[in-house]
Amino acid sequence: MDLEFSCLKPEEIPIVVSLHITNLGNTLNAKLGRNHLSFLYLKMIEDPDSTVYIVKKKGKIIGAASATLNSNNLKAYIRREYPKKLLPEIIFKNLIRFDLLLKYFQFRRTEKAVLFNKKRIYPTLTTILIDENTTGGGVGKSLILKVEDFFSRRGVDSYKLAIQKKNKNAWGFYMNSGFKMAEQQTRHSFLLIKKIQHNKSI
Q: Running DSSP on this structure, what letter comes out for residue 81?
């Protein structure tokens, strides 16, 4: 499969937002809407300690992956920059949807550093998104290698990600990609850890 990788550009954000909603529609950020997601992706591509990669096939975006060196720092940056015009929509959705409040508190747990082999792990693979019509071809593993290159160039040797217990397909994918169980964060979510193999090429 002939794949083209690049960093996300602002004009490409709407496509990635659609991928996010399709792949992760049950997550907190997806439930808060397209405007909210668009702002999050914009801030991630502006933040020097975060990145969003996209992958194209024949000019079409078929996948994306985002990562950050520290979820708490990224969250603080987003909170400072969050546009006031979006706040009423976010507050209203949280007030009328108890499940969103529950997801918020669950999400806060997954942001914390993980203690693994006596070391606190902060770097996080925040999302991997793949077009539902794309199968095989190593798109997901290629995106992981791009994220690991981003981490390696910043002196990172291990990173974490959160995964839902019910997401069986993702479990198999991440286990086959070298991730290991770190800890259970909530009744329905776990944190996985991966040590970067620096001798791998992209």
A: H
CATH of the domain at 22: 3.40.630.30
Residue-wise DSSP of 132-186 = TT--STTHHHHHHHHHHHHHHTTT--EEEEEEETT-HHHHHHHHHTT-EEEEE-S
User: Does residue 161 lie in a domain region?
Assistant: yes
Domain membership of residue 202 (yes or no) is no
Tokens encoding 81: 């920059």
Structural domain including 119 reads 4-195
Q: Tell me, yes or no, whether 130 lies in a domain.
A: yes
Cα torsion for 33, 8, 60, 194, to the nearest 10°?
-90
Q: Which residues contact 126 (CB under 8 A, 6 or more apart)?
A: 44, 66, 67, 68, 71, 161
Report if pTM > 0.90: no
**98-126 pLDDT, tens per residue?**
444 444 444 445 556 666 677 788 999 99
pLDDT for residue 42 is more than 50: yes
Checking if the pLDDT of 47 tops 90, the result is: yes
Domain count along the chain = 1
Look at residue 79 in the predicted model and tell me its pLDDT.
Answer: 86
Angle at 89 between CA 83 and CA 93, to 5 degrees: 135
**Taking a C-beta distance cutoff of 8 angstroms, is the pair 87, 147 a contact?**
no
